[in-house]
Known about the structure:
This protein is of the alpha+beta class. It has twelve helices and eleven strands. The chain folds into two domains: about 1-50 and about 265-395, no CATH class; about 55-255, no CATH class. The protein is about 55% helix and about 15% strand. The strands form three sheets. It has a five-stranded mixed β-sheet. Strands 2-10-1-11 form a four-stranded antiparallel β-sheet. Strand 8 and strand 9 form a beta hairpin. Helix 9 runs parallel beside helix 12 (about 365-395). It is elongated and about 115 Å long.
Amino acid sequence: MLLKLQKKTLIKSQIIGYAFTLFVGISILLLISQLYFDLKPLLNQESDVFKNQSAIISKRISLLKTLNKDKIYFTEEEILDLKNQDFIEDVSKFKNADFKVQAFTSDSGGFPMFRTDLFFESIPDKYLDVDSEEWKWEESEDFIPIIIPENYLNLYNFGFAESQGLPVLSKNTISNVEFNLQISNRFKSKNYKSKIVGFSNKINSILVPDAFLTWANKEFGNSSKKERTSRVFIEFNKPSDEGVLKFFNENNYTIGKDKLEFSKLLFFFKTALFFVFAVAIIIIILSIAFIFLSLNLIIQKNKEMILNLFSIGYDYKQIAKFYQLTISLTTTISLFLAAVTTFFIRGLYLDKISSLLDFDKQGNILFSFMFIILVILLLIYNWMILKKIRRVCEKGR
C-alpha cells in the first residue's frame, strides 16, 4: 500500500530530466578530468608549460647595426629593464670568448681529419639542460668539455654528411670522439684536449664551463676591451602574458617565438579544459538543484498524504525510504552510464594519440572518480530527503 501510494507522487518526466542532465554533466566532468590526467605527462615532456619557460633573446640586426656593431650589445640599463618586467623571472648574460679557437683532429684517432674555427660561450650551470659528470674544469686540467645544440648534430647527419658522403654519427659515437683545441691570441697559444659531453635542446650555442671561459678571457682576451653582452638568457614566470611579444617588438628584440607560441597554445588548451570543466560543474549543479526542487514540490504537494501515513504508524524513515531509493538508483545508473560512455570515448582518443605520438597510457581514474562523486551525491540526497520528510512529520504533530 505504501509503495503504491508513493509511486503515484512521482513525476516520471522530472526523474528522466534529472537523470539525463546528470548523465551529461558527469560525462563531461569525467572526460575532462581523465583527458587532463592522460595528457599531463605528455605536455610536461614536450614543454615546460607547468614550469618556467625560458628563451634566448638578442637584438634585431638592421642596416644601422651593420654599420655600427655596438648597437647589437645590451646595455646595463636594458638588462635592468628586462629584470623589472613582471613576466620575467630571471635574466642571465651569455659570456663570449674574446680569443681565437680552432678545433682539429690528428691522424691517429681513427676519425677523419679536420680543422675548423669555433666560437665559445658560457652561461651559469643552473640554466643547462644537460647533466654530465665531465662538465667541470680547473686551471690545472688540459681537458675542456663542450656542449653543443642537438640540432647541430642533426644538421651534420641529415645535411653535411649526406652531401659529402660521410658517415652519420649517433650521440654516443660523437661523445666518444676526442679532438684538440687551440686557444690563441696574437702573442700566445695553448692546446687542449676536448670532446662533446652533452647535447642541449634549450640553448643554441657552443658552450664551455663558465670557469674556463672567465679564465681564458683573462689569459687570451683583450684586457683593454670592455666585456659586452650580445645575447641574454631569460626565464619567464608568465610566458603567456599578452605583454611579452609586445615588449620585445617595441624594443626590437628577437626571441624564439615558437617556444612562446607553444606555451600560448598550451595555455589556451588548459583554459579550454577549465572552461568545459566549469560548464560540466554548472550542469551538475543545475541537475542537483532541479531534483531538489522537484522533491520539494512532491513533498509539499503530497504533504497531507505523508501526514496521514505518519499518523497511522509509519515512521518518517519508512516514508523517506522510497524517495531515497528512487533517487539513489537513478543517480547510480546515470553515473555508471556516464563512466562507461567516457571509458569508450577515452579509448578512441587514446588510440588516435598513440598513432601520432610516442605516448605512454596513464591509469584509468574514471570509475574511482565516479565512485567518489556517487558517494557524495547519495549522502547529500539521502540526508536531504530524510530531513524534509521528518520536518513535515514533526510540524504535523
